[in-house]
Amino acid sequence: MRLRILGCSGGIGGANHTTAFLLNESVLIDAGTGLQALSLQEMLDIDHVFLTHAHFDHIACLPMLIDSVIGLRRYRPLYLHASTETLAILREHVFNWRIWPDFSLLPDESIAFLRYCPHEVGETREAAACRITALPARHTVPAVGFCLDSGNSSLVYSGDTVGCADFWDAVNAIGGLSTLIIETAFPDSEQGLAHASKHLCPATLQRELAHLERSAQILITHLKPADSDLIMQEIAAAGLPVRRLLAGETIEF
What we know:
Elements: E1 2-7, E2 20-23, E3 27-29, H1 40-44, E4 48-50, H2 56-59, H3 62-69, E5 78-82, H4 84-93, E6 114-118, E7 124-127, E8 130-136, E9 144-149, E10 154-157, H5 165-172, E11 177-183, H6 191-196, H7 202-209, E12 217-221, H8 228-237, E13 243-244, E14 250-252
Parallel strand pairs: 3-4, 4-5, 5-6, 10-11, 11-12, 12-13
Antiparallel strand pairs: 1-2, 1-14, 2-3, 7-8, 8-9, 9-10
Helix pairs in contact: 7-8
């Protein structure tokens, strides 16, 4: 399996683009501004989108993706996998005819461009020959992480979360874990903001990683652009065996 990192920043500006990962050409994990790195043909090849949650930095390019590929160039639907709560938020606040058309009804409901697929914590779906399981997460809105299982090894992506016991229980039960992608959005000087917005900072990352019972490559994502270097310096000072996830890299597992 190949996971291409299109965007992994906690914000935009310059080379910074928000979260979007491409799995084996046809599966998108989150749909932030990193999605614009793809060509039109690459976007046409996407059949499934899995969302961790409905915050704008993780869905910003989803409406434009659908708009760009519908019509004469594409006849098969796009399948959107997310929790029932996340799908409800998208229906009410995005695909509502006021912000963007409701593509689950176009051209009509029987042959709609967009298909909603509820995907709850603990449930596993197969897409592009990969088993994708929704993992528990704790954020300011309903959220999940994902375990991607290639059959040879597994990669876990935390999504946006402050961590929780259920998340670590699920991660520690995964056989063949090779990679953990986990967020750290703020420096320690903004720990109060991190706590209020339910994100990690280096100090809380250190406490959370103490729950990891398996050996794995640990990659840090979702750093706020203005503080990204400082965050990584604080993580290094804590002696944590991690590195920064980079846009443009491809992870094989």
